[in-house]
Amino acid sequence: MSQEPNKSAQIPEIIGLQPRHFADLVRAAQLVFDPCSGTLGRSLTIDWQDLGIPSNIVDNLKEIGAEYRYSSPNIPPEEIWAKLTAESRLWFINNKDNLWEFEEIFPALDED
Prior knowledge:
By secondary structure, the protein is mainly alpha-helical. Helices cover 54% and strands 0% of the residues. The chain has helices spanning 4-14, 19-33, 55-67, 77-83, 86-95, 101-105. Helix 1 (4-14) packs across helix 4. The chain starts with a helix and ends in a 7-residue tail after the last helix.
């Protein structure tokens, strides 16, 4: 039996990624997929590159955001890691501590 799947699942932990980083990534992916958070009649066009997300990463995040659109952001890290492309993984590692800022840019519409 190969140990490869086990090693792949351990990589995020080894490089210092915490569950909160993955929750921030899921929330960012949800916002990339739908920056209006599902509000009917509202549409935004965002230049994600201006916000530091290259177009190939945007595509991967949109896929993840679509899949977990209505989910809690607390998805098992290994599940999210498996859905990231190699480029997205590198971007995630380099931006893990700043992902929460996307929620500040696009606050929930029902907040006071």
